[in-house]
Design a protein that fits this description.
With about 675 residues, this protein is α/β, with parallel strands linked by helices. The chain is built from 22 helices and 23 strands. It is globular and about 70 Å long. The two termini are about 55 Å apart.
């Protein structure tokens, strides 16, 4: 507006300097008309524009590095492996494939699609024997991972000619989810539509089965197809090539050493928003109470203070927390490998052109790396066993490790039984193979990163703008080897006691936006189904509906189906739910106690019992349905129950009823927040 004003003044001044062709009245009228036209043009038009819905973003987009084509040309690479990864597995697979390439006289590089302009794919044919591989994980309900969102958007909108591009796709998914491997399937289909040439079939990995075996099986058929296509041969056996070199720092300034930060050095001492995966906020734990009154399990409610963080969240969002490994497990690495864990070191990438300079923040100590940066509790993948085998001095142990890392049927079966089903983590393998004593730096290079854990937020920001509530159950089980395995995050959270010995308990966290949202109109009825800790987001939903009611808004029926084992043991948020029901916010509370009677009763049984009311709410009241909790059994059983209800009361066939429910999902009226 200031610029427009200046321009107007300049025009008036120049007019005044000229001979008086116009009277002052004329000048005034012309100025008025010009002003009205300017206002109409700039402001009225803006009002008519339809606002574009923002894309779901959790992390700030990094600056793009430029062209991956130029980088490949500069470094002599001809294979690029892009990864869409949420928990690190797809990135790990991409690194393994890029490392494989040298066996065939080719050179590969793993690449994060978020860091490059993917429209350059049309130029890949400029490089001889070039190939693009995509390791794409599916997140949530058929969504791309955060780092693949831009790539997904580009694919949807692109009309590029990719006829010179050769590609292959391996998808990472979970069959217990409705949209199994949706991202991998979409990328494979869309690249072909844009004219690209598929040189090997789409691979579909299933994390509900054996994802590692799925990947190895695909990989062992993929490389022969690459060899045939390019007319190359394997140059020899798979060899162990170090990706990083160890540098030990003897006189390092400790102010330059990472102590658990995820991104910027000293970011935990000097906190600066915005907070995201690379810059988590240290939230103070203000409450940590046990929710259940009995039973063997420990169910807990935690409250995190986010005051002054500028973190905003909505009911249905997820909070991500970065846990720490148990110090007693970490100490055992030092004892078994005879290493001073407080040695300060760096692992530096031998490939100077790589974007990934270190496998985790460096310089740091082995203790910090094993505590905050590395996953030491999950069974290691076969590539880790292969690389470690060379350090076993006992011939039998070395052969066993190599066999488990092989692609033979016998090797796969042994890996499945001895590692996966026995839930042997790296520490257990070191304990059970006394001759296996690898250098700790190589072990740290091979172990995957410790990932953030996601929890459905159990509060409403309308009621608790400065706090985020978590509802979780500690994971603890005995393995086939008799060891007691404990869930990293839940046991770490369990020990976060508020204000212990005058010190704050801190949790590094950030918020991940979700599409699990209450209806836009408060008057729309909602049916919430969440047994166990699946009740978490619904506590937030009910709090929000209560707040809306207090604001004088008309709030529709709010129906909850909750389930637990026993009424007197693990009925979570019992008092809160009773209060909401008494206040008239929670219009129906249906609770299934699965073990309080001889026959098991679950939430789907209560849905069937109230089927007429359910149909009326959904069909006549346009109710929104929400399901939260276990994907493998509960979510599937609940969905099948809805198929039955729709078929019966809508006078539909089974296939028509299925289509009806699927349409509800498409319209955002049947939402899932599930895990397996």
């Amino acid at each position: 507006l200031a610029i427009m004003g200046d321009a107007g003044m300049e025009s008036t001044d120049s007019t005044a300097l000229q001979d008086s062709f116009f009277s002052m009245t004329d000048v005034f009228l012309i100025s008025l008309i010009t002003g009205l036209f300017t206002y109409w043009f700039f402001f009225r038009k803006k009002k008519e524009e339809i606002p574009e819905l923002p894309k779901i973003q959790t992390v700030t987009s990094p600056a793009r590095d430029g062209s991956f084509i130029e980088k490949m040309k500069k470094t002599g690479r001809n294979i690029v492996v892009f990864y869409g990864s949420q928990t690190g597995t797809a990135e790990e697979f991409a690194n393994r494939l890029s490392k494989d390439a040298h066996r065939y006289g080719l050179r590969g590089m793993a690449a994060d699609p978020e860091e490059y302009d993917l429209s350059d794919l049309s130029r890949l044919s400029e490089i001889d024997k070039s190939l693009a591989v995509f390791c794409m994980a599916t997140y949530g309900e058929g969504d791309p991972t955060d780092n693949a969102q831009d790539f997904y958007d580009w694919l949807q909108e692109a009309d590029a000619d990719l006829s010179g591009l050769r590609f292959a796709v391996f998808g990472l998914g979970n069959k217990t989810y409705e949209h199994f491997n949706a991202m991998g399937k979409y990328v494979d289909k869309r690249l072909e539509e844009l004219g690209a040439q598929r040189i090997f079939d789409l691979g579909l990995g299933d994390d509900d089965g054996n994802l590692e075996e799925d990947f190895i099986t695909w990989r062992e058929q993929f490389w022969p197809a690459v060899c045939e296509h390019f007319g190359v041969e394997a140059t020899g056996e798979e060899s162990s090539i170090r990706q990083y070199e160890l540098v030990v720092h003897t006189d390092m300034n400790m102010n330059k050493v990472y102590t658990g930060e995820m991104g910027r050095l000293k970011s935990y001492e000097n906190q600066k928003p915005p907070f995201d995966a690379k810059n988590p906020f240290l939230a103070v734990v203000t409450e940590n109470r046990k929710l259940n009154e009995g039973g063997e399990r420990h169910l807990m409610h935690l409250e995190l203070d986010i005051s002054n963080s500028k973190i905003r969240y909505e009911s249905g969002d997820h909070v991500a927390v970065y846990p720490a490994n148990d110090s007693s497990l970490v100490n055992q690495f030092g004892e078994i490998l005879g290493t001073d864990l407080d040695t300060v070191m760096s692992l530096n990438n031998l490939d100077e052109e790589s974007n990934k300079k270190h496998p985790f923040p460096c310089p740091t100590s082995y203790r910090t790396a094993l505590t905050y940066y590395l996953d030491i509790t999950n069974p290691p993948r076969t590539n880790v066993l292969y690389e470690l085998a060379q350090y076993a001095t006992d011939a039998g142990e070395q052969e066993r490790l190599r066999k488990m890392a092989s692609s033979t049927a016998e090797g796969k079966a042994l890996y499945l039984s001895w590692v996966v089903e026995a839930r042997r983590n790296i520490l257990a393998i070191l304990q059970d193979m006394p001759s296996l004593r690898p250098p700790i730096d190589h072990l740290c290079e091979l172990l995957p990163r410790l990932q953030a854990r996601y929890y459905s937020i159990a509060s409403s920001s309308k009621v608790h703008p400065n706090a985020i509530h978590i509802c979780a159950v500690t994971v603890e089980y005995e393995t086939k080897t008799g060891r007691l395995n404990k869930g990293v995050a839940t046991n770490w959270l369990k020990n976060k006691v508020p204000n212990e010995n005058g010190r704050n308990s801190l949790v590094p966290m950030y918020v991940r936006k979700s599409q699990f949202r209450l209806p836009f109109k408060p008057s729309t009825p909602v049916i919430m189904i969440g047994p166990g800790t699946g009740i978490a987001p619904f506590i937030g939903f009910i709090q929000e509906r209560a707040w809306l009611k207090q604001q004088g808004k008309e709030v529709g029926e709010t129906v909850l189906y909750y389930g637990c084992r026993r009424e007197r043991e693990d009925y979570l948020y019992r008092a809160e739910l009773a209060r909401f029901q008494q206040e008239g916010v929670l219009t129906q509370l249906n609770v299934a106690f699965s073990r309080d009677q001889p026959e098991k009763v679950y939430v789907q049984h209560l849905l069937k019992k109230n089927k007429e009311n359910i149909w009326k709410l959904v069909n006549d009241g346009n109710a929104h349905i929400y399901v939260c909790g276990d994907a493998r059994n509960m979510a599937r059983d609940v969905q099948n129950t809805f198929y039955e209800i729709v078929a019966e009361f809508g006078n539909m066939s089974q296939s028509q009823a299925t289509d009806y429910v699927k349409k509800l999902m498409t319209k955002g009226r049947y939402s899932l927040d599930v895990w397996s």
